[in-house]
Design brief:
The protein has three helices and eleven strands. It is of the alpha+beta class. Strands 1, 2, 3, 4, 5, 6, 7, 8, 9, 10 and 11 form an eleven-stranded antiparallel β-sheet that branches.
């Protein structure tokens, strides 16, 4: 009789216990949930000067595994330049104008009429200076991202040969990247300029 009771107790214990593998499995992860922030290893300290006088400071980087594309006017061919070899990028305005907006006069009519509106447009050329002092000049394309020094949302800066603005806007409202400088010294100098501007604004309010 006792052995039957012991057998029943063993069976109940086995049925109630969870398998060892289930106890060791990690918790399920939702693939559509918010992913943890991952630190990029290919970021470089630096600053970006915009045409409106704004200075942006932070860590710069490109889309992973991509490079800046520039047409080397001296060699007459396109070159791909990794950001890690870049010391600075300077932008020069080649031409700027107000482009008129035109539309077709009527459906199925090839005649166009001026709408009375225009938009600002510019053409640029860029000069990339490398760490070894060599320079590459010509039309450039690429997107440079920045994680701001003091935190905040990631910023995106488009480098291109031609840019156009919104309808009825002015040329001075079409902001572009004037220069990019990389390195700790460039970052410190830009932070100093930002502080000087802040002090100047503060003194004017007094």
């Amino acid at each position: 009789m006792h052995w039957r009771i012991n057998l029943l107790l063993i069976l109940f214990a086995l049925l109630g216990a969870a398998p060892a593998s289930a106890q060791q499995d990690p918790p399920a992860i939702n693939p559509f949930g918010k992913q943890p922030n991952q630190q990029r290893e290919d970021t470089y300290p630096g600053c970006i000067d915009l045409s409106d006088g704004t200075v942006q400071v932070g860590k710069l980087y490109l889309t992973r595994d991509l490079r800046l594309k520039i047409y080397d006017e001296s060699l007459k061919r396109q070159r791909d330049v990794p950001l890690r070899v870049v010391e600075s990028i300077e932008c020069k305005v080649q031409k700027e104008w107000l482009e008129k907006e035109w539309r077709f006069k009527a459906n199925a009519d090839n005649e166009k009429v001026y709408t009375g509106r225009s938009y600002p447009a510019r053409q640029y050329t860029h000069t990339i200076t490398l760490h070894d002092g060599s320079k590459i000049s010509g039309p450039m394309s690429g997107i440079i991202y920045m994680d701001p020094y003091q935190g905040g949302e990631k910023q995106r800066f488009l480098m291109h040969k031609r840019q156009k603005g919104e309808l009825s806007s002015r040329l001075d409202e079409l902001v572009y990247v004037k220069s990019i400088r990389l390195g700790e010294s460039a970052l410190r100098e830009a932070l100093s300029r930002q502080q000087d501007k802040a002090d100047d604004r503060s003194s004017r309010k007094r």
